[in-house]
Amino acid sequence: MIIVAKRALYLHEVIDIVGQGQYDYMAHAGKEPTNAMPDMLTLQGTFFVCAMGGGRWPQVINIWDVGEAGWQGWASNVDRLNLKRRNSFYGDWWDEASQWRSGGFDRLCGGVPGSPTTSEIAEAGTKGTLFVHQLLSVRPGTQLEYLAAVVAEQVPVWANYDHRPTGIYEVLGNNHEVVVIWASSIAGQTQLRAARDSALGLCDEVTGDDALVQWERTAAKYVTGGDTHIMTPQPGTVYGPDDWDEASLNDWLNPS
User: Fold this and answer.
1) Strand ranges in 25-93 using DSSP code E only, listed in sequence order
2) CA neighbours within 13 Å on the CB side: how many for 234?
3) Residues facing 109 on adjacent strands
4) 4, 68 in Cβ contact below 8 A?
């Protein structure tokens, strides 16, 4: 077993967005005051769920790094939001955020061996223009077993299709949920999906890949439910693109 000195902890947020507020809210998340506070939450990534991959909309997914102090860092963040919040906590950022969001759901997550830290992601230069978000339920008590299988089997198979993990997380508020997030591209995700279908005889667009089907069989030994969605990253985050793509409605109305 690999022993690490301090556990990498993350806050996973699902935010319910008001109207078309996802773009403003994602930009606003980067201005959260904790980003400038020593040893407090810092934004790793913010995304909106892309409807073409399925999923509830409009929603934004945020991933916050709790910091390098492990559980003591978590304690500092709890202390900030607990009894001290009423008298000393900032209000302007939250008041502005409320115009774009109506609520949400948080999960405290812990990285496992094989899950890159925020600094490792940055050092490796990992970037994505489309992200895959897996929020899955597994048989109670098998979270770590399943995630070890992800590292050993899914990661090398999906790497063949330009998918690199940015988070392989155990959800710490229950004994049955996991989160796995992948940086990729539209081309990479399309090739992966087509290769899987071809291996099952459901299409002939590309050469089938039996390894993808074998991974699904392995995962089925653990997974009891959940969803896989695709997400659009906010430019300028740790692993987001530099900017939005240039486009206009004429690109689709009058294709060349």
Assistant:
1) 42-49, 59-65
2) 22
3) 10, 171
4) no
Rounded to whole angstroms, the maximal C-alpha distance in the chain is 63
Query: What are the chain's domains?
Result: 9-237 (3.30.70.100)
DSSP for residue 131: E
Structure letter (DSSP) for residue 153: I
User: Does pTM top 0.90 for this prediction?
Assistant: yes
Nearest CA-CA partner of 132 in 109, 166, 108: 166
Kindly report the length of the chain.
256
> How far apart are the C-alpha atoms of 195 and 209, rounded to whole Å?
5
For β-strands 223-233 and 130-138, DSSP reports them as: antiparallel
| CA atoms lying within 13 Å on the CB side of residue 163 | 27
Report the Cα 210 to chain-centroid distance in Å: 26
Number of CB atoms found within 10 A of residue 250's CB: 9
43 HSE (CA, 13 A, CB side) = 23
With tokens 């530099």, the residue in question is: 242
Each residue of 219-249: pLDDT tens digit?
999 999 999 999 999 999 999 999 999 999 9
Buried-state track 130-158, b at ≥16 Cβ within 10 A, e below 16? bbbbbbbbbeeebbeebbebbbeebbebb
Per-residue pLDDT, 4: 59
- The pair of structure tokens assigned to 247 is 């486009």
Three-class SS of residue 53?
helix
- Strands 130-138, 101-111: pairing is unpaired
